[in-house]
Structures
1.
Amino acid sequence: MPRLDEKICLVTGGASGLGRGIAQRFVEEGARVMLTDVNAQAGPGVAEELGTVFRVHDVKEETAWMRVMDEVVAEFGALDVLVNNAGIFSNCPVEDTTLESWQEVLDVNLTGVFLGCKHGVRVMKNNPGGPRGSIINLSSVVGLRGQLGGSAYSASKGGVRLLTKTVALENAARRIRCNSIHPGIIDTPIMAPMFSAAPDPSALRRHIEGTLPVGYMGDPAHDVGNMAVYLASDESDYVTGAEMVVDGGMTIGLPG
């Protein structure tokens, strides 16, 4: 497994789910990590458990990004890796989607990633020793295909996919890489409301897992976290603008 010894990493949306799993793996591989999240209640406890620094951070606010980047540099002296993970989920037919809910999803999932890339590049190009860095944007399999009820969510995640490629192209000569991860069905707290609303949660879980070629839902740390470790590490120096699909075979074909 690649190592991240002493790399300075910022992970947004790190108080739970994918962000927590990614931060856990980064710490295990020797990185120094700052977690950010809007969840000021859960964040400090997660940071203490993992041995990281925590900051409250609303990714859709540019002033918040400027403050957090200043704090990363003040705390650690540089920024090697930025993971734009913070996001919200929505599920509503397009004709029932309000402009307000559409805008909220785009603000967090796409504008938040844009602001992260903008200010991540600003800091990384001024790193001690010269420009360098890895930006990792969390998209989704829904950023590669449509989803019933996913007009706002799929639009935001599709936007992240192409934003990633543009950032990668603009910054390749600076040795600042940008890649996207496209998770499928991962066993995170975002799934909890669906299971709790089901008459038989165990049956629903078996049904979902039965549609996946590998037969189980992914793990945040082992499956998505390990991919993030690779993209953050020096072993992936020649990888930029790529879309890394981590979906247990979800998008390769129809279930039997």
Note: Residues 99-124 form the longest helix (26 residues).
2.
Amino acid sequence: MKYLPNGAQMKEADGYTIQKLFTPSLTLMERAAVACADWIKKNRQDITHICVVCGSGNNGGDGFAIARMFAKEGRRVTAVMAGNPEHLTEEAAYQKRLFEETDGILCDDFPENEYSIIIDALFGIGLSREITGKYSEIIKKMNACPGYKVAVDIPSGVSSDTGKVLGAAFRADATITFQAGKAGLLFEPGKSCAGKLITADIGISEHTFKKDLKVAYMPEQCDYRKLLPERKPDSNKGTYGKVLMISGSKGMSGAAYLNALGAYRAGAGLVRIYTAEENRVILQEQLPEAVITTYELFDERELLKLLNWADTVCIGSGLGMSEKSRKILRTVIENAEVPCVIDADGLNLIAENKKYKNVLREKRIILTPHMKEFSRLTGRSVEEIQSSRGDILRTFTKETGVTCILKDARTLILSGNNRICINPSGCAAMAKAGSGDVLAGIVTGFLAQGVKEEDAAVLGVYLHGRAGEYAARVRGRYSILAREIADNLGVVIEELEDETA
């Protein structure tokens, strides 16, 4: 897996490498500069006039080292000392002196000119305040200037924790980040500011990442492959689990259909849909593979029998917010002994009845909120969550004991006190009604096959996103339907198996 630290966590790893492993800071700086210069030379033909904008911190030191390397090769190089020279770190001051010994040009403001490449080394991962005044104007000039734009470690002005733009931000065509991708480079608008992301290994130890469970991670292909449940030659539908889908109030048969379709496409053996009587005919026509059990009035004894039959339960998609829906959800939460996925209206009912949250800890529960639903569950605004999503999610799962899939353009998965998983897959084409219903079904389908809750969430979210990407390539970014995500699930599962075989 790949670690995805924030700025403070990266600084701790940097300090451990310098102090405990006795790797000099200047050595790391030279390695970083070499990595940047080498990538630029390999990937850009035109390096006739290079401008490197440097701050007074160690990010600026990286920039002066890059400028010096190009200048020694006889390139036309302009370095800008944009930071306060009196505040230069020891390493940055040393690199600035080395650059001054070359034929490169040193300025104290950004000279508007025609550059083939503009390299941003103004602020690094430690930035936590808004950029204003002179620095903001320099970044605006850099962005407006023609030429290919490269950021060193992180685009100046992007929060390494959240991806938020702190007043103004450099908009790079490529960002060369060191040792590990930073969490803020994966969330918008930081992701867009970074452009193409390249991670360069410069020898910083990952020891502190391994010890600190607050450092997020992103699985690699081999990790996902290990999570796939085995398909045995000698098996039957009972081998792959019985799913109870409690979804679809009157007029909401589509949610139940998409839930069940997602579970079947994920490999579940048998799906029973428990839904409003009005949905019976259309569901039997849409998905004859599913068993349909319906209700008009709430019958607790019948529901308890179904809960005893099931290997896993999914509840909430299109369920509605009626008193009948509340009774159904309460019965499931209080009596289910198998893993449960709670989605959509199920989440909203929990948010309205806070006492339900106290019962969740005793169960094996996966919640699938999008940002607005998570806001209702936590009582925090969407803006607060976006500014501190990791901390708020960690507090919530610790309090409730659930596995939570926090859906967004970049989805987070967390189980209890474990490490946050940041999902890499998915695209804007998936922003369609029913996409979340399919996801809930996919995750439930993997649970039915015996996959553990956290693993089912991580695998289900990833494959859901990959299937959406595949559907978008076929149908276009504007035109995919939620059911096409489910229909392409088999293709991406096969690809995953083939890639890592």
Note: The two ends are 18 Å apart (CA to CA).
3.
Amino acid sequence: MNENTAIMATYGLQKAYGSCMALDGMNMLVRHGDIYGLVGRNGAGKTTLMRMISGQSEPTGGEMELFGASGKDMRAQRSRTGVMIEIPSFSPFLTARENLEYYRLQRGIPGRHVADEVLEQVDLTDTGKKKFKSFSLGMKQRLGLALALMNHPDFLILDEPINGLDPEGVAEFRQILRQLNQERQTTILISSHILSELSNVATRYGFMEKGRLLEEISAETLHDKCRTCLRLEVDDAAKAAAILQTQLGTDKFEVLPGNVVQLYDCLDDPKRASYALAQNGVALLAMEQKGADLEAYFLDLIGGGRHV
């Protein structure tokens, strides 16, 4: 596979619960090698989407593809996925290895060594005879991830896997995901309310609101959009752009609708920009320094609102 290979795609995907549209024309693309961060408020449709990808729920409209297969052919391809939508029902009186061995036999996964391999991947090899009931939340989350990894998936689907973890647990989980992605080339779809942490691992984002995908964007492009800049409101953006190039010798800017120029240069001396514009007949109506993190970008995208 190359980096442009589609792992999962949806086309106008819909899911209705009576008169409520949980997904309303969802168009989305996850490529090979992505760590795809799915961002949306509670009720946006993230979990509904993940349940349909994993086969736990059926769409009421639209189409979906998994590893290039669609319809009934997707069933075979789902064997290449690992899913953690919520912590599985582990026996409280069994050890980590015993719980995994139970699921290995139930699912018909060959090889007694598999449980040991995935426990090592998620750093749970030292739990020994400790019972699941005595595990911390972070350990329970990692065991859930280990179960999702038992079939060596090419595509890993994780719904809020770091929710409720302490900072150390979040950092450990983040490191595991990076290793899976970089060393094993596992494609990952992950949703999280902890947007600052999502921004530490995601290579691509999808922003959801009310069952629709508002935007897909690479982490690199998002970083460019969120970086600090001078926002210049002028009376003639085209002329201002020419002045920035010829007078200040910079092309680190973009022209936006409404005669707005975002300048990523002169941040330590904004007077240089305002003086150059004024001297060359461009009226500067407003100037402010701005920047945004992932949460601010998302809230701006949906037009403000409560915390995600």
Note: The CA atoms of residues 116 and 274 lie 64 Å apart.
